[in-house]
Structures are given as C-alpha cells and as structure tokens.
Amino acid sequence: MLVAVDIGNTNIVLGFLDEGRIAGTYRITTKANHTSDEYGLFLTEFLRMSGFRPADVDDVIICSVVPKVMHSFRSSIVKFLDIDPMVVGPGIKTGMNVRIDDPKSLGADILADCAGAYYSYDGPALVADFGTATTFTHVSGDGVIDAGIITTGIRAGAAALWGDTAQLPEVEITRPDTILGTNTKTCMQAGLYYTFLGGVERTITQFRKELGGEDFRVIATGGLGRVFANDTDLIDVYDPDLIFKGMAHIYARNVK
Predict the structure, then answer these.
(1) pLDDT per residue as tens digits for the range 147-194
(2) Which residues form the active site (predicted)?
C-alpha cells in the first residue's frame, strides 16, 4: 500500500492507496508545533481505522507547501514506518512539462493536481483547486503546464471581511438559499458565495477566450470545490482525490 500525504497550509490530508484504490482519506490540522510522535500517532491510528497496520505500508510520497512542517512529519514516517518517503520536488519525474517563467516556483500541490488531471482525464484541462488559496492552472493537450492564476481563497476573503470591520460577525461559509439577504448574516453569506462564484465563472471564461476557444475540461478539487461545482455548468468534474491520483502517477514514474 502507498500512503500519499498532501501537506497544505490549512490541513494535512492523507490518502491510503491500496492497489490503485483509495482505501481511505483523513485530515489533520496543519500545525508547525506538532512533534513527530504526534504525527506518527495520527498516522498509525488512521491506518488502524482503515483496517491496515504499519507493516502494510510499502512506501510513502509527500507533497508539501509548508516547509516548516516537513521535518517533523518526515521524521514521523521514518520513526513509525521505517520508510524514507519520496518528496515531490526538484529531481522527481512527473511526466509534465513545466513552461512558466520559473518552473521551480510551481507549488508541489499544483504540479500533482495537474498530473492527476492530465493522466486521469486525458487531454487539455484547467485545474481549479479551492484550497487556502484558489488556483487555476492550465495544462495543454501535450501535458504542458503553461499558465495559471493564484487568488484568495473564499475562507481567507471571508476572514478579512469580518476581521477588518467592527460590526460584521463571523459567519459560516455556505451556499445561501437566496441572494436576497434580509439580515446581516444572510447578506454576508450571499455576498461571499455569489461574488466568489461569479469570479470563478469569469475566470474560466477568460481562460477560454485567451486560449482561442480551446476545448479544455475544467477539473475542480479542494475542500470547497464541491460547493461551487454543483452550482455552475462551467466546471466539468469535481474530483476530491485529484492530488492523490497525481501523486500515485508521480510515484509510479519514479519507482521501477
């Protein structure tokens, strides 16, 4: 079994891939002060909950955008599983051709997402990852990562709204029943949701315009991806496991 670990700014997400099948996924809040023993305890307990033992793990691959967490998490893998994990980064074969100004600046999570989209869904794609930040990344039909945007995630935008105003309260980010808000809470929820959704749709439309009408598929992933994918026809697929599919592909390319 392969354990795939996505270390993000908000959460660490673990995926257990058993013979190509995702047998379980679990989330841990990303905290720099967790020790290797704490991470190891989380990992072994999640394995047990999925019906596995540490001895069942053949290898581990890590994709991280939080360098300060890497030392303790990697140490937990070595200590509890006796495995030196593969880390997505320079020197790793991905099967993707990165043609941006500074290829090394491309986030490991975006790279894995793009590999998952390209090799799972065949052909050109616009990968929309709704995480702490929201990213849109274009992959050509030849597997070239050539353009993208990075913008505020809806949770970060919402936090700025109530954090920088004296009388606006913190509200749950959810799809409202109507845009016709009648109190502060529903006005904020409708405003956050529909302005963000409008930005998503405008972004996709602009990519299509500037790429000359290329017939790419829009693949959404990330925690809030499902909410928006269900409310617009411009998103073709929502795949919460996209990054794990990409990491599995990357792992296979690097292990004989």
Answers:
(1) 999 999 888 888 888 888 888 898 888 888 999 999 999 999 999 999
(2) 109
